[in-house]
Amino acid sequence: MRVTIWGCRGSVASPGPETVRYGGNTPCVEVRLADGTPVILDAGTGIRSLGARLLAERPAEIHLLLSHLHLDHLVGLGFFQPLFAPGMTIHLWGPQSPVESLEARISRYMSPPLFPVQLADVRADVVMHDVPEEPWQIGAATVTADPVSHQGPTLGYRLEEGGRTLTYIPDHEPAIGVDLEHVEQDWISGFRLADRADILLHDAQYSAEEYADHVGWGHSSINQVVTLAKRANARELVLFHHDPFHNDAELEALEVEARRLWGGSGTAPVLAYEGMELDLS
Amino acid sequence: MPETPPPETPVSAPREQKSVVLILARELAANIATPTLVTDAVGTMVYYNEAAEKLLGQSFRKSGELPAESWREMVSPSGVDGSEIPYEELPLVVALTDRRPSHRPVMITGFDGVKRKLAVTSFPLIGNGGRLAGAVTIFWDLD
User: Fold this and answer.
1) Which of A87-96, A122-131, B13-22, B67-76 has the lowest mean pLDDT?
2) Checking CA distances to B10, which of A44, A48, A275, B40 falls within 20 to 30 Å?
3) Residue of A147, A175, A192 with shortest CB distance to B127
4) What digits encode the pLDDT tens for the residues B81-105?
């Protein structure tokens, strides 16, 4: 697998000179499987640039895995050019709902007055999938999705191919009102997904001080994400879903704190940035 | 020569990941004063909070997770007048098998051997995909 980050900002797109090093686009991660199949994680504003590239490439199939349907993870879908290209096939995967199909929920965004084009008007062949509760295959990759603790139905994903593992949990509050350091591991939201992952891309929205005012908002403090990664023995932690109010310097201060908490062993945590490439081949 | 553990050393296999539905139920229970007990989909008692410890007569730290048949046998629920309650009419059994809330007053024997009259309400926990994750039971002391 080869991984490219096209957007790693949380909540709302935040372009500007103060965010230029890490980027202002909202979540979108491209994963290229060994056979070249593109798997896209989330459809934040970062998907616009990726879509232009895929339109030129015209792969046989594109798999788009949505962690959840909050707007920062969905808003780029209407600007994903392959969606409007006849002859392209896009598999769209998302969390289950007890009341509405995935298509009906996405159509709430892709319909007037929020958006001028309706989902029914796209020209690609779009196949909607409720994410199954058991692992499934995309090419040679095994994909596991588990519901995780956030606001509303939200999934984390684990992709395994060729003995390497990428875990993606962009929006996650792994413990609320309990001690993440000491709670049993089977009681930690997202633990199975993160367990011994080669790369863990994880929500790192708040400092410890900021988190105190945002308990229950569905996002992690830097302390929580480092604790989770260490308990799960993740090899490399990539800090993701940057707060839209954090400028580059503030993000770098969070990275310093994450490295202090991580300690001296193994690969130190790093901040995700637009254009970042990670090789899992 | 490498050290090998003695044969009586217990080997703890990692337990299966709990569903986020159960995790959130436990987090809620751990932070409220309403006596609350959480079970998984087959009735295994996976958690009860401090307020429930007083009514069940033992800390959860001491009892740990218990299979359904074990803890049901230990607390031996009956009607408040001592009459037998058919198994399928126990609130927790109704919640898990019929997937609906159920309430009734019962007499239980705590882990400490003390009989207590409780109002018991159980309701199922069903995930967004329709899978039964478990049930929550709340108690109210009638004594």
Assistant:
1) B13-22
2) B40
3) A147
4) 999 999 999 999 999 999 999 999 9
Strand order in the sheet with B102-109: B45-48, B36-40, B132-141, B115-126, B102-109
B14-41 burial: b if 16+ Cβ within 10 Å, else e: eeebbbbbbbbbbbbbbeeeebbbbbbb
Q: Residue B17: pLDDT above 70?
A: yes
For A143-196, the pLDDT digits (tens) are 999 999 999 999 999 999 999 999 999 999 999 989 999 999 999 999 999 999
The answer to whether B30 contacts chain A (CB < 8 Å) is: yes
Closest in B14, B30, B127 to A177, CB measured: B30
Strands (E), chain A: 2-7, 28-32, 38-41, 61-65, 89-94, 125-130, 136-138, 141-147, 155-161, 164-169, 199-203, 236-240, 270-271, 277-279
Residue partners of A33: CB distance under 8 A and separation at least 6: A1, A39, A138, A139, A140, A141, A161
- Predicted ipTM? 0.83
**Nearest Cβ partner for A153 among B17, B19, B128:** B128
How is residue B47 written in tokens? 């958690």
**pTM, to two decimals:** 0.91
